[in-house]
Design brief:
Largest sheet: 8 strands, mixed
Structural class: alpha/beta
Shape: globular
Number of helices: 11
Number of strands: 12
Bound molecules: zinc ion
CATH architecture of the largest domain: 3-Layer(aba) Sandwich
Strand content: 15-25%
CATH topology of the largest domain: Rossmann fold
CATH superfamily of the largest domain: NAD(P)-binding Rossmann-like Domain
Number of domains: 2
Distance between the termini: 58 Å
Length: about 350
Amino acid sequence: MQRYIRQTILPQIGNAGQEKLLSSKVLIIGAGGLGHPVAQYLAAMGVGDIKIVDGDTVSITNLHRQILFTDDDIGKNKAEVLSQKIKMINHEVDVSFVPVFLDKKLALDLFATSDLIIDCTDNFESKFLINDVCALYDKPMIYGAISQFEGQVGVFWSSKGACYRCLYPSVPKSKIQNCAEAGVVGPVVGTIGSLQAMGAMKVLISRNDELTSLIGRVNFYNFYDHSYRSLRINLRPTCQCHKATFNEDAIFEANPVDCHYKSTAILVDVREENEWSEFHIEGSCHLPLSELENGRVPDFTLDREVILICKAGVRAERAREILQKMNYKNIQCSKRSVYEYQT
Ligand SMILES: [Zn+2]
């Protein structure tokens, strides 16, 4: 316990608190800017079992804020690289990773056996999914979000207070909003992630009655103005997550527009002009496969993260082959059809 003595001398932690940390199982969803400080601090403070979930790969545009990643990590799975790096911080803790994006089935599998779930994602869909599965299993959720110079942190626990849906009842309509490059700086994600790690520690070591003031409290920071406000979110009477009838069927299924998982990606539709003019996803770009086959050069840069989408997946796959031959490095295909988004 020598390793942890500077924290165990604090009466709020003590040896009893340290034992709780060492026997805790924590799930970190997202190995990006928020996931980095969360994973680092949790490993260093001795959280005994840490699992990191992320299907994304490291790209050059991540390096300015996801500070454990280096140029050598580009193209590798984020969850895998982050777990390797935090293992080096503390060999006494058990670190594992799941190299895929969270979906409903995976959440149902993983959350049941975790003590705490930390939301380090960058999209509304994942946050709703995390919230709902946490509510189903009655697990605490440490919420974090950032946009430009602003950040939010909160603790939700549906049986003891408000949940994320009490704050935001439903997913905002502007589906593709996250694809735009809103911009972000390292210290903002570093600070919010550190506050999440602190919230996680508090939840793990505290008795339930000590958490009353924490649950449902969300702090909003503007780091550019150095201002902040703290809001107490009340349990919303109509929120489904606190009702006895809440079950697996009511869980939000993450919207499958893949670019929601990647705030810097653009969605490129490779169907032909007539199909595009009939229907296309708001905010997507258009690059018909026929034009690509005829030598058209895309107007995005070689390292731009791009998700290709079409009707059945065949043309997106063909477009990916062509773009990869042209040295575009971050090209993926959507697993879904454009028409799944037609309302
Ligand atoms: Zn709620």
